[in-house]
Amino acid sequence: MFSIRRFRMPALPTAAGLSPERRRGALLATDLQDIPFWRRATPALLAIVLVGMADLLSGKDRYLAPLMTVVPAIAALTLRPVELLLVCSLGFLAVFGLSHYDEVDNVNDERFLYGALVSYVLLTLFSAWVAKIRMRRAAAFAAVSSVAEAAQRALLRLPGPEVGPLHLAVRYVSAADASRIGGDLYSVLETPHGTRVAVGDVRGKGLGAVQTAAVVLGAFREAAYDEAGLRGVAARIEASVERHAPDGEFTTALFAEFRAPGVMELLQYGHVAPIRVGPDGGVHVLDAPDPWVPLGLGRLATGEPTAWNQPFGHEDVLVLCTDGVIEARHRKNGEFYPLAERVGPLVRGAARSSAELEAAVGRVYADLLEHTGGELRDDALLLLITRTDRA
């Protein structure tokens, strides 16, 4: 009798399934409510001060108090409705004070005062309504963003910092900020055939890329346990991509297997070449002797992909990434990020402990953001690996 294993897709997470802390954090960050009140109120308060100074410095023959109507409009961008009414009440008092200073509160000129006050009050009420609508939209956006983030985590099934003989440190950033879902993927599994790693980059972004990533990861999680060699694993994934991925979609991928201490096996499908950093910070770019086409394009190639072995000791650091890292452009001159030139000093000595490895991936990511000016325009994945077993 043959045993049949069923693979069940995880249920789609909902906002109700997220912790209250995560939902609240998403909302606060979306609507700037994680910033203290006094900082969010600073623009409106500064507007009150500037209008008041302009009126006082221009003398009594200039009546600039009506300019105070900019205060509710500015406050509506950052404050809650109650906070807005509180700040705008200060502006209301300022209008009264300036009107008295400019002597427009007498019988002959009081129509200017009434006009300024009525305009200010109406705009304040309207701005409070706008602030309420803004917060509702922010809450809806935060809910969608939180669910998307949970869906991404369910798809990736993030491994822990230690899998088999490997220590891991990861930075994953999606260019689709609104959804926090991207096409970069990775998985690390301890199998009967050794510890196996898959890193991939789906062409494109959005839901189509997520669908292809789900196909690749699902096939890898099944094949990694069943197939004795990496070529068999990759062949199973290739077949799944051709059957289930949207037409025209392809995925660059890199597979690694860690079985015997001191050595690793690599298999490349059009992906960014891995980098091995030695204990002295020396950088070795591990180019494939026979590069292969990305997953999904195998039918266009002749022959078969070839795996190759590389030394990998317990003091080495393996740096895996996607093209969102090496193709990140400089904030001024547009040059690509020179990962191979800069990664050595950044990760030297990171194999000593998990804490050192986590600090190292943080340094590389910070250097990447410094290169780009703080913004990435493509999905980016950085995965650092060391091994704990000794030859």
* CATH architectural grouping of the largest domain: 4-Layer Sandwich
Order of helices and strands: HHHHHEEEEHHEEEEEEHHHE
CATH class term of the largest domain: Alpha Beta
Question: Termini distance?
Answer: 41 Å
Question: Strand share of the residues?
Answer: 15-25%
What's the story with the biggest beta sheet?
Answer: 6 strands, antiparallel
Q: Please tally the β strands and state the result.
A: 11
Q: Please name the CATH topology of the largest domain.
A: Phosphatase 2c, domain 1
What proportion of the residues is helical, as a percent range? 40-55%
Low-confidence stretches: 1-19
Radius of gyration: 29 Å
Strand order of the largest sheet: 1-2-11-10-7-8
What's the pLDDT, averaged over the residues? 82
Shape: elongated
- What name goes with the CATH superfamily of the largest domain? PPM-type phosphatase domain
* Number of separate helices: 10
Number of domains: 2
Structural class: alpha+beta
EC number: 3.1.3.16
Organism: Kitasatospora aburaviensis
InterPro entries: Bact_Sigma-Reg, PPM-type-like_dom_sf, PPM-type_phosphatase-like_dom
GO molecular function: protein serine/threonine phosphatase activity
